[in-house]
Amino acid sequence: MKKKGIVQGIALVLLMSLLGACSGNNGGNNGNNGTPTNGGESSPTVTAQAEDSGNSGGKYAMIFKNTGNPYGEKMMEGFKTAVEEQGNTVILKAPDQPTAEAQIQMIDELISQKVNSIAIAANDADALQPALKKAMNAGIQVLSLDSAVNGASRAVHVNQADPDLIGRTLIEGVSEMIGGEGEIAILSATSQATNQNTWIEVMKRVLEEPDYSKIKLVKVAYGDDLRDKSTSETEALLKSYPNLKAIIAPTTVGIAAAGKVLTDKGLKDKVQLTGLGLPSEMAEYIESGICKWMYLWNPIDVGYLAGYTADALVKGTITGVLGDKFSAGKLGNDFEVIADGDATQIMLGAPFRFDASNIAEWKDVY
Amino acid sequence: MIEPRVLAHKLDFSWKRFFLQWEWMLVIIFIAINVMNINLSEYYWDYDNLRDAMMGFLDKSFIVLPMVLIMILGDIDISVGSIVALSAVIMADLYTMGVPMVLAMLICLAAGIVCGWINGMLIVKYKELSSVIVTLATMIIYRGIAYVILEDQAAGGFPEWFSFLGWGYVGPIPFILLAFVCFAILFYLLLHKTVLGRQIYAIGNNANASRYSGVKVDRIKIFVFVLAGFMAAVTGLFLTARMGSTRPNIATGYELEVIAMVVLGGISTAGGKGRMIGAIIAIFLIGFLRYGLGLINVQAQMLLIIIGLLLIAAVMVPKLKIKRTQKLRKT
Amino acid sequence: MESRNVGSFVMPMGQQTQANKNKRTISSYVVQFRELGLLFFILLLAVLIQMRNPSFLTWENINDLITNTAILSILAVGMMLVIITRGIDLSIGATLALSGMISAMVVSHFPQVHPLLVLLLGTGIGLVCGGGLGYLVAKIGILPIIATLGMMNVFRGLTYLISDGKWVSAHQMTTSFKFLGTGTLFRINHLIWIALFIYLIAYYFMGHTRTGRQIYAVGSNPEAARISGIRPERTLWLVYVIMGGLSGMAGVLWVSKFASAQGDTASGYELSVIAACVVGGVSIAGGVGKLSGVLLGAILLGIINNALPLINVSAFWQMGIQGSIILAAVLLNAIVKRGVDRNHLMRRKV
Questions:
Q1: Segment C153-184, tens digit of pLDDT
Q2: Rounded to an integer, what distance in angstroms lies between the CA atom of residue A19 and that of residue A17?
Q3: CATH number of the domain that C126 lies in?
Q4: Separation in Å, CA of B56 to nearest CA in chain A
Q5: Residue B155 is inside which H or E element, if any?
Q6: How far is A118 from chain B (nearest CA, A)?
Q7: I need a labelling partner for A277 at 20 to 30 A (CA). Which of A41, B4, B190, C118 fits?
Q8: Are C337 and C281 spatial neighbours (Cβ–Cβ below 8 Å)?
Q9: CA atoms of C131 and C128, how far apart (whole Å)
Q10: What fold is seen in the domain A55-154+299-349?
């Protein structure tokens, strides 16, 4: 019996090694299988080793908020393109739950792998500070993208669009849709999401302007980015405020859920819908007219820009202070570091409007 | 008349039986995992990295220790994650309002004790309700209170020395590891070397019989749940120190991870069985496995599958062995 | 209380039961209804909510409420079976997501497939998942909590892998498929019809078939069941297969209703289902559980989800209120159950 135990133990060791090697290969597609551009061939059977020290320059890592998120997938795709264009290796990570703790662990793993830079879309603006500071002390360049970390945790933030502009554009859009007066509501994600809260603050501020004096924000509801909760929150809004004229949902899950609810209840033209949404998710509702138009930006470009920013930071072209300039491959040559409160950021551009005229070409992209 | 031979059998120390224990299986798997990790990444077998990795998974390990006691009792506590959040939020909020840090930390621990005490009282006073439903309800309530306190804000800005808890070293050893080892030793002694520990096993095996034998079942249950609340608050301290700030949504999903570690450690959910050392090995097993796989940047989805399969495989192997010996015994 | 004379000690059985039968008035039936506390609580809650927001008890809202609770109640039936056999199933959310994602991908790539076939496909996937789980629990003997915890991770990981991180959106689904989850028959949503159907089948199955009774037996006392000739392994396996099948079906209904399939669908949903069961009086120790209780439990949870945004309190209070309501409901149920059980006991006293 004891012999059997030892045999089984050895079998387990071999099995583990095999399993690990296999998973390394499978995970390698999105993992650190950064193909060097000189060969131009992708080798999916590269054994998972974090050190391709032979062929490429640095290791550039990106951490997104969670896995299985098409928006994040596109962003990572853009990042990967940018990094590989420069001849470096890319490492892409995303936790299965959108928590800060999981991201802290990933940052630690990246520090252990001695990467050159970490670009992170944060689940919590402040909780990553000690971990990111540790990374910076180890000589790793830290930048954030999409969802920012606080100024002390990063060198620079890559912002998709000016939050002031986002908030203002949404209110302007809504005002146009409802003819300048009426009750509106906001359907947000979780109450803890920093960028959501920033945009809501901006929207509230814009609503105080005299141009929008006849528009009243009656409620901010939280759908928690859960499909079923967003649905029931939308239904509750419609019931509690029968005179509701429009819903602004600056979150991809929320706007799609609201679109479905409005469709099912046949409220087209009675309640307007706009916000920030994925073209693929909203194609149906834009084509049917439930949502006349909405906004987003190209996540591929955001990732791409972040890739070049990381490279610029590592090479020393920029250090993240005001006024630094650098070029970003296909996106152009004149990106400048601008202010963001006490810290600095880089702006991609203005939010992009999706409506019936262009949705068809974008709905398959992302 | 009792066969003396049977008793003699039981007193014999058999190397075979000693090494076939569950905990040794875990050690073998642990070694296997380390071998695999070393093969997979050159960054693994590095003292600094391993040390940092431990600091990453030890914060939720504090809850594993009392959870072993609870599960041996035959109960369960799924509100631990929420107690972590609530106690941390209370501490952070008080500190921002001007309460001195040390006092805030003590209140954090007190809050954990109170939450655990409420859990225990409800379970003991309403015996119709299983611990699952009580702690399910309190899980939602405690986190709800945390949301009421902090709303959508983060609270932070703690004094410099506070981060020592989560990031500091005492000589070459991380402080958090030191704290964990101390608590682990305490809990080990509690479970295996005190009367209370024997009583906990007794209750887990047969609560009614224990009650009739004079064991103060209710008081022990309350005490164990208070311990769980206290350790959850300790986790809150360390987690907040590691993050430098806190929000109401921290420590989500901790309960399932902790339960996985406890069950992997050989503690049966039916109660009455299991040893502390098993859970401790399981903590390091899962922690290093995750770290090793993270070093080669395995995708989150693959990691999920691997950990799930590992859990099942680890529990399955001894079951298969037992089934085989059972079949042999029948003939 | 009826008095018994010493003289009538040797009362023939037939006459005695006749006397007892006459006692079954409506009120006596009511006080023997264990879930009375829960029903009373639900009614009280409904009144309180209505006072706060009069649009609660409108036909439209109740329709929304029941439609949104339909999926939860379907899952709760399966979970009841599992809990009765002293088990638990933490993997239903992941099974739901897996079958939902696969079904959605099938619909988007093969739009000519009839929605009912897709429903069958989803249920089939769920049956396979449940079968695997059941094998682990019943034949190999792994504890349900760890088997389902492990498989939950595996199914969820598979969902992400198969979908390759992408979602299936509304424009990729056929109208007929979406009609499955949103269409109505005689003004009542399909989901409600399906849920009713499931409950009727379950009622018949649990109360009036041998296998159903065997499930209760295995949960009450597996050893006694084995000795009386029931094979607990087969019953256990069947229970997990049923749960898996229901989860699979729920997955298809979910993606049809919300017209979207995500990798993280229904993450954490199992806790709500377990709450519905336990609130409804299903005992974790096994052997006890009634469909009526489970239905009420699901309805209570549905009311909470529906009414929380309606009562116009700060969003940050929602979670605390939700937990308090659940706690109050189970406490009330426990207290009332004490009274009812005492009532039962007194009736049996000679």
A1: 999 999 999 998 889 998 889 888 998 888 88
A2: 5
A3: 1.10.3470
A4: 6
A5: strand B155-156
A6: 14
A7: C118
A8: yes
A9: 5
A10: Rossmann fold (3.40.50)
- ipTM exceeding the 0.95 mark: no
Which residue in C has a C-alpha nearest to residue A283's C-alpha?
C171
Residues C277 and C341 in one domain: no
Regarding whether C150 and C234 lie in a shared domain, the answer is: yes
Range of the domain at B224: 58-252
Chain B residues near residue C275 by CB distance under 8 angstroms: 133, 136
Within 8 A of B321 by CB-CB distance, chain C residues are: none
Question: Phi/psi at C164 (nearest 5 deg)?
Answer: 55, 35
pLDDT tens digits along A179-197: 989 999 999 999 888 889 9
pLDDT at A22 over 60: no
Instruction: Show me where the domains of chain A are located.
Output: 55-154+299-349, 163-297+353-362
Whole-model pTM: value is 0.86
* Total residues found in chain C within this entry: 350
What's the one-letter identity of residue A186? I
- Given a cut of 90, whether residue A27 has pLDDT beyond it is no
Positive or negative torsion for Cα C155, C156, C161, C163: positive
Q: Are residues C172 and C223 in the same domain?
A: yes
B129 CB near a chain C CB, below 8 Å?
A: yes
Residues of C within 8 A of B307 (CB-CB) are 150, 153
Cα(A56)–Cα(A58) distance, integer angstroms = 6
B121 in contact with C, Cβ within 8 Å: no
pLDDT tens digits along B5-28: 555 555 567 777 777 778 888 898
Segment C48-60, tens digit of pLDDT: 999 888 888 888 8
Instruction: List pLDDT tens digits, range A81-131.
Output: 999 998 999 999 999 889 999 999 999 999 999 999 999 999 998 999 999
- Domain A163-297+353-362 is of which CATH architecture? 3-Layer(aba) Sandwich (3.40)
Q: Which residues 238-267 of A are in CB contact (within 8 Å) with B?
A: none
User: Are A60 and A115 a contacting pair, CB within 8 Å?
Assistant: yes
Q: Which residue has the higher pLDDT, B196 or A318?
A: B196
Q: Do C319 and B143 touch (CB under 8 A)?
A: yes
Cβ neighbours for A228, distance < 8 A, ≥ 6 positions apart: C68, C258, C305
